[in-house]
Design a protein that fits this description.
Number of domains: 1
Strand content: 15-25%
CATH class: Alpha Beta
CATH architecture: 4-Layer Sandwich
Strand order of the largest sheet: 1-2-3-4-5-6-7
CATH superfamily: Ribonuclease Z/Hydroxyacylglutathione hydrolase-like
Structural class: alpha/beta
Distance between the termini: 17 Å
CATH topology: Metallo-beta-lactamase, Chain A
Number of strands: 13
Radius of gyration: 19 Å
């Protein structure tokens, strides 16, 4: 919160509780202690070409299975690793040769150490910086061994797989993974399917950066691409455009009201249009989204 803006007690409590929920999801030790993973089912969802999406608990996974072996994007929580390996085996794949992290949060990278004995872990420079930070309590086996600043390509299973850094959006280390031959894009948490996105301000996430990244991608992506969101169902480009339009519109409303001198409290009370009510029923509430937009500094 800005120094001149204070939330009433009930509002502050709501945002504080949200922050605890964020911690339980993104810090593996807490999430493993609080959640029961025994009943989680890893569900394969065919995408296109060599690519299958795996849904379970945490961020969506992409797997490429072909003549060169298996490449996996993200790996959810550590207690789910055996189930994920079994799901890959059921699709005809072996242990992954490569593991790409879209970003550092534990619901996307929590299983790194359970795959690193056979998989080469690849991620943006800032992902390694976060995972090697003692404050995040991650073991060395979870660290990426290949990192990049802007992007890199992997030529695997008959296609170019482009790792594209999307700076200062959800975090400062996000990447989109584009399977160019299969025409499938894994967006990580830059895309919460038709829900308000989460901006991790503590990891240098920023609403202005997210909007820039999303608008750039809309102009670059072919109309027939399939998109794997960080959370939610496999999506078409049309569904992605709906999300981008909604992010643009609601963020602009908040920023316009802020520029007009309204406080965070007043903007929350005023709320956003009823057409976006469903967007706030996911992980991020309308209040949390307004707060993130209000508190994101200009880039």
């Amino acid at each position: 919160m800005s120094g001149s803006t204070a939330l009433p007690t009930s509002r502050f409590h709501s945002v504080f509780v949200k922050s605890l929920v964020f911690s339980s999801i993104f810090l593996p030790g807490l999430s493993q202690a609080q959640d029961d993973f025994a009943n989680v089912v890893i569900t394969p969802v065919p995408a296109a070409g060599n690519i299958t999406m795996l849904m379970g608990q945490g961020g969506n996974i992409a797997v490429s299975i072909g003549e060169d072996g298996v490449l996996m994007v993200d790996d959810q929580f550590a207690p789910l690793s055996d189930k994920i390996k079994a799901a890959i085996s059921s699709l005809g794949g072996d242990a992954p040769a490569f593991l790409v992290n879209t970003h550092w949060h534990g619901d996307h990278s929590g299983g790194n150490e359970n795959f690193s004995d056979q998989a080469t872990i690849i991620a943006h420079d800032n992902v390694r910086a976060r995972l090697t930070d003692p404050a995040n309590s991650r073991v060395p086996e979870s660290y990426p061994v290949i990192t990049y600043a802007d992007g890199v390509s992997i030529h695997f299973n008959g296609e170019e797989i482009r790792l594209i850094h999307l700076p200062n959006g959800h975090t400062d280390g996000d990447s989109a993974i584009w399977f160019t031959g299969s025409n499938v894009l894994h967006m990580g948490d830059q895309f919460f399917a038709i829900r308000y996105p989460f901006i991790d301000l503590s990891s240098n996430g920023n609403v202005h950066g997210l909007i820039r990244n999303l608008n750039n991608l809309v102009t670059r992506l072919p109309d027939d691409i399939l998109i794997i969101p960080g959370h939610g169902n496999l999506s078409t480009k049309a569904e992605f455009v709906t999300y981008v339009d909604g992010v643009n519109e609601t963020a602009a409303m908040v920023l316009d009201r802020k520029a007009a001198g309204l406080s965070l409290e007043a903007i929350i009370e005023e709320g956003l249009p009823a057409e976006y009510e469903q967007w706030g029923t996911g992980f991020i509430s309308e209040e949390a989204w307004i707060t993130a937009v209000f508190n994101s500094p200009n880039l």
